[in-house]
Design goal:
Length: 606
């Protein structure tokens, strides 16, 4: 689901946690001080305006969202729209340095002190950080954030699994926090460093989690009844009460939700006058007075808005890239950047449905999907076919996997082997399941407003129909789709995942471990494989990169054979931006940082 993409605060989080993108990885430029890492293959002007002199404050940055965020709770939200908005408001202990692709401190003073057994990580915190209301940040806020994530009643399974190894979190003093771990995890520094710190006084005004430790929340069944009742009360309030009331330590705020968040229209973030690190982009400040997100759920309408000056940055569709922007007039007004990034589009088979529980059926369906045709005809060549979830610029990538062949003959043989045949001559394959003869009939869904995914859906069902399968396609509203995905209420789905790209080692636990095949979990196709579970568990505690690569080679082999997804392609993200901006820089392998952008006074328009 792109629950991706990849913000000093959310940047690190997106790099570690996979993000479900409502519009698809290529549909919109990532917003926030530092977007999720991408891999760039540059084709565009690095700096569209002369950058003489220091940056100047002022003007607005107007970005595009294809749909409203699921919500603006920094822990329970999991879609890319929310990540883009929240990235300007929340910050993490560490972030990715776009020059070195290594971590560097933001809310922390330095990288953590790590014990030799990798079971203790101690962070020294800055003493000058304040939240948007002026309250100083302390170690207790970090402890509180960890408790929120580990509270099993908080609706955040997509994040919680990354903190499974955290045994306890202790405020050693007001500006030192220690994480005690049950077991090593090779990405613990990335994970712990990505923690977006919440203000305890704001999100828990009744102090309901007081006196309840992370260790107690981990052992939920044994938790004291009075503490459990308070933890449940907190979770209910937290899940429901902060959907549109975010507050963090970042440079921008949603000052008045009623005024500044208009459903289906726009979200306006305003610069904090009291930001704790003024004029310091490396510490999360931005040069704009406002960050405005225009919500336009039609790609063509958004493109028109870009040309009319109502958007500053926009992720072009393939047809817009190839046929509508390759002219001198467009190039005079806009810069354009193309990059293959850590994202992929897939066709997911819901294995909670009996139709898709037989791997032979899933393999057969994959043999009926012509990936090269999708790349050439739907993406107009702006994509690369993929055979698995690992980004091909990562050392864990399994190069030896052959492209999955488009072969109706192989599909027919596999379906026959699985017992599917046309017994009544109606042209549709059928089979007896649980004493009832059922047709091979299913529906493919995706999110409305995404023309690319609609074209993919229509292309694959056309192929299915020509080979005895009664398939249909339907676009549904993003919020409806999320609900269906969360409750396994669909047959098949076209979506995309965005992850850490080239910068961050992958961890497929969130999507592929059987423990995540639960409501609101990211294993929304219900894939369960004992060997994969073992690999994912062993991989997490392996610090030898070569052994991790060996484990992931086998992991990719299993996914290739089982086809829980039909992996389709990695799209090229093509971003257009207004040339009035200075400070525009694209970092190889990671993309751009919007908080480095600025507008000279003579070009400011707001």
């Amino acid at each position: 689901m792109s629950r991706s993409t990849p913000r000093p605060s959310r940047a690190a989080l997106a790099a570690v946690f996979l993000v479900l993108g409502c519009g698809g990885p290529q549909d919109e430029a990532t917003g926030g001080p530092a977007p999720a890492p991408t891999t760039a293959e540059t084709s565009g002007t690095a700096t569209p305006v002369e950058d003489e002199g220091p940056p100047e404050r002022g003007d607005w940055l107007v970005l595009h969202l294809l749909s409203d965020p699921e919500n603006l709770n920094p822990i329970t939200s999991s879609d890319s729209a929310a990540s883009q908005v929240l990235g300007w408001m929340f910050q993490s202990l560490l972030e990715i340095d776009y020059e070195t692709l290594e971590q560097r401190p933001v809310l922390a003073r330095r990288l953590p002190d790590v014990s030799e057994d990798h079971l203790t990580y101690s962070f020294a915190l800055r003493d000058d950080v304040t939240f948007a209301d002026g309250t100083p940040m302390t170690a207790e806020d970090v402890v509180f954030t960890a408790k929120v994530i580990r509270n099993p009643k908080v609706a955040a399974p997509h994040i919680r699994n990354y903190f499974d190894s955290v045994r306890e979190v202790v405020a050693v003093d007001p500006h030192t926090v220690r994480f005690d771990l049950r077991e090593p995890y090779f990405r613990n520094q990335w994970t712990l460093g990505s923690l977006n710190v919440l203000p305890r006084h704001y999100y828990d005004p009744d102090d309901l989690l007081a006196g309840i430790g992370v260790a107690e929340l981990n052992d939920w069944d044994a938790l004291d009844p009075e503490k459990k009742q308070r933890a449940e009360r907190f979770a209910k309030q937290f899940n429901q009460g902060f959907q549109r009331r975010p507050m963090g330590s970042g440079a921008y705020v949603l000052a008045d939700p009623k005024r500044d968040f208009v459903t289906g229209q726009q979200i306006v973030l305003r610069h904090r006058d009291n930001y704790w690190a003024p004029d310091e982009p490396d510490l999360g400040d931005g040069w704009f007075d406002r960050i405005v997100f225009r919500i336009i759920n039609d790609r063509e309408a958004a493109f028109v808005a870009l040309k009319a000056g109502d958007l500053d940055v926009y992720g072009l569709s393939p047809i817009q890239t190839v046929r509508q922007t390759d002219n001198e007039r467009f190039r005079e007004r806009f810069g354009k950047q193309s990059e293959i990034r850590g994202a992929y589009t897939y066709l997911g088979w819901n294995q909670k449905r009996k139709l898709f529980q037989d791997a032979r059926v899933r393999r057969a369906l994959s043999h009926l999907v012509d990936k090269r045709n999708l790349v050439d005809k739907v993406m107009l060549g702006l994509a690369e076919p993929v055979e698995g979830p690992i980004f091909n610029k990562r050392p864990e990538y399994r190069e030896e996997l052959e492209p999955w062949e488009y072969s109706p003959a192989k599909a027919k043989a596999l379906l026959a082997e699985a017992g599917w045949e046309d017994t009544d001559g109606d042209g549709i394959l059928d089979k007896e399941i649980d004493g009832e003869r059922v047709p091979l009939r299913f529906e493919v869904i995706s999110n409305a407003g995404n023309d690319e995914r609609k074209k993919v859906g229509l292309a694959v069902i056309d192929s299915f129909k020509r080979h005895g399968i009664d398939a249909s396609f339907r676009s549904v509203d993003w919020s409806i789709l999320l609900d269906k995905v969360s409750h396994f209420d669909y047959d098949a789905i076209v979506l995309g995942w965005t992850s850490g790209g080239a910068a961050i080692p992958p961890d497929g636990y969130q999507i592929w471990h059987s423990s995540q095949a639960v409501e609101d979990g990211s294993n929304h196709v219900g894939f369960e494989n004992e060997e994969v579970d073992g690999i994912l568990e062993a991989y997490r505690v392996e610090f030898d990169p070569e052994e991790r690569n060996r484990l992931y080679n086998r992991f990719q082999e299993i996914l290739y054979a089982e086809q829980p997804y039909t992996f389709l392609y990695a799209p090229s993200a093509v971003t257009a931006w207004d040339r009035r901006f200075a400070g525009v820089r694209w970092y190889p392998g990671v993309g751009t940082r919007f908080n480095e952008w600025w507008v000279p006074k003579t070009r400011q328009k707001h």
